[in-house]
Design a protein that fits this description.
Helix content: 25-40%
CATH architecture of one domain: 3-Layer(aba) Sandwich
Largest sheet: 4 strands, parallel
Number of strands: 22
Number of helices: 13
Strand content: 25-35%
Strand order of the largest sheet: 5-4-3-6
CATH class of one domain: Alpha Beta
Radius of gyration: 22 Å
Distance between the termini: 78 Å
Structural class: alpha+beta
Length: 446
């Protein structure tokens, strides 16, 4: 149960009344909670959850592949194979028999099913498996939303191992082609004609060939393109009730052919009536999926007065964007998620002002030589932090094949407009120097 109380001025305090009695301060000090984080080995969220657990005085145990990992938390944790879900759950339950867990959290989409099954086996709060699958698989999500009577684009699956002509007959263009279950807009492409679709399919087939789930390597989702502004909503579910933590505007148009996200600014500048409709549609989508507990990250398109669900994921926002929720609150998003999972009180001060992030796009393919202008960008008024995530000498791969950002830039100011201006001005300071990839010719020698 959520209670909102004004604390004076523009500040509010939000408290979550948990499903079970919250521990007293002394109880939190005396008993060390034990939290299981189910995470893929490459997850960048692991460090954030480790920091959050440390801040709470909790012990975080990581279940992941990578027995010989260089990351101590993974090497010392529970070693599982995501390709063997029953076996993974069995190992987690066996570990819980030696030392019980107080909560189970998943880091990424691929970890959701193992986490849900393990939490269910241990009698802890979790989402049902059909809900988890709907939140991870875009084709299942579309079917669930359509059955619930919610606005969804026209869609169909393409089987890459079958004759394409009858499958694409009658398609209306423009449409969007996407993998069944990949993140960061990887493999998501707008095509405006049958010729463009056929020309793009070999590239998309190579992308989905890397999927871990077999049938996701052989299928794509095709759906009609919905024009309009796009927003993101970050929330927490408690016993099926949605609480919105933040709404982000995406001021850059996302019209294709690729859909690389860049600017996120909060709070939203859109009309309240439209935002209320978007929140209502998100709550309806969560109910249709069957999601009831934990974080949700949603993307919605606003078109002709309606909010169309693009995606609802049962996890936190990607990249380092979660840092936006900690501006002025003193708590990271991961800490909020862990507190919620433990059933602890959740206190969040709503700061005045606005915040934003620029996910610095990858401008071209090649080898990163250097990023110039970083110092000048950091000195732009309003810029809180700028970090380049990819080291010099590493290969850059833009969309649709790539899925990594060059780095992240954060801003904080009095208004969303000032935040966006600061981010754009700082971005203009950067000059990304890339050495192009050169073809290598192999010649025979005698």
């Amino acid at each position: 149960m959520w209670r909102l109380r004004r604390c004076g001025g523009r500040r509010w305090r939000l408290r979550l009344i948990p499903r079970r009695a919250a521990p007293t301060a002394s109880a939190e000090r005396d008993a060390t909670p034990r939290i299981l984080l189910v995470a893929i080995h490459q997850s960048y969220r692991i460090a954030a959850y480790q920091s959050a657990a440390e801040a709470l005085g909790a012990r975080l145990v990581i279940a992941s592949q990578g027995e010989h990992s260089l990351i101590p938390g993974i090497a010392e944790g529970i070693h599982i194979a995501f390709s063997d879900v029953p076996g993974a759950v069995q190992r987690i339950v066996a570990e819980a028999g030696r030392a019980p867990f107080d909560a189970v959290v998943a880091s990424d989409d691929l970890a959701l099913e193992v986490a849900a099954r393990a939490a269910g086996a241990l009698g802890l709060a979790h989402n049902a498996l059909p809900a988890v699958r709907a939140s991870r698989r875009k084709d299942i999500a579309r079917e669930v939303l359509r059955a619930a009577g919610l606005p969804v684009p026209r869609f169909r699956r393409l089987h890459l191992r079958r004759a394409l002509a009858p499958q694409i007959a009658g398609l209306r263009y423009p449409c969007v082609v996407k993998p069944l279950a990949m993140a960061a807009s990887r493999g998501v492409v707008r095509v405006d004609s049958r010729q463009e679709l056929l020309g793009m399919l070999p590239r998309l087939e190579a992308i989905v060939a890397e999927a871990l789930v077999p049938d996701e390597r052989e299928q794509l989702l095709v759906e009609s393109f919905i024009p309009g502004e796009e927003i993101a909503i970050e929330g927490l579910l408690s016993a099926g009730r949605l609480h919105v933590l933040a709404v982000f505007d995406k001021p850059e148009p996302l019209d294709g052919p690729f859909f690389e996200e860049s600017y996120y600014v909060t709070p939203s500048r859109l009309p309240k009536a439209l935002l209320d409709r978007a929140t209502r549609r998100l709550a309806e989508a969560c109910a249709a999926y069957g999601l009831r507990e934990g974080p949700v990250h949603a993307e919605l398109r606003l078109h002709d007065g309606e909010a169309w669900i693009v995606e609802v994921a049962a996890r936190t926002i990607g990249g380092d964007c979660a840092r936006l929720l900690s501006f002025g609150t003193g708590r990271s998003l991961e800490e909020l998620v862990l507190r919620h999972a433990l059933g602890w009180p959740l206190a969040l001060d709503r700061p005045a002002g606005a915040a934003g992030v620029l996910m610095i796009p990858t401008p071209a393919a090649g080898t990163l030589r250097r990023v110039e202008g970083v110092l000048a960008a950091r000195q732009v008024p309003g810029i809180e932090d700028l970090m380049i995530s990819i080291r010099e000498g590493y290969e850059l791969t833009p969309l649709p094949e790539g899925g990594a950002y060059l780095g992240f830039m954060f801003a904080h100011a009095d208004t969303p407009a000032e935040v966006e201006t600061a981010l754009r001005e700082a971005h203009a300071c950067l000059n990304v120097v890339i050495a192009p990839r050169l073809p290598v010719a192999m010649t025979a020698t005698s």
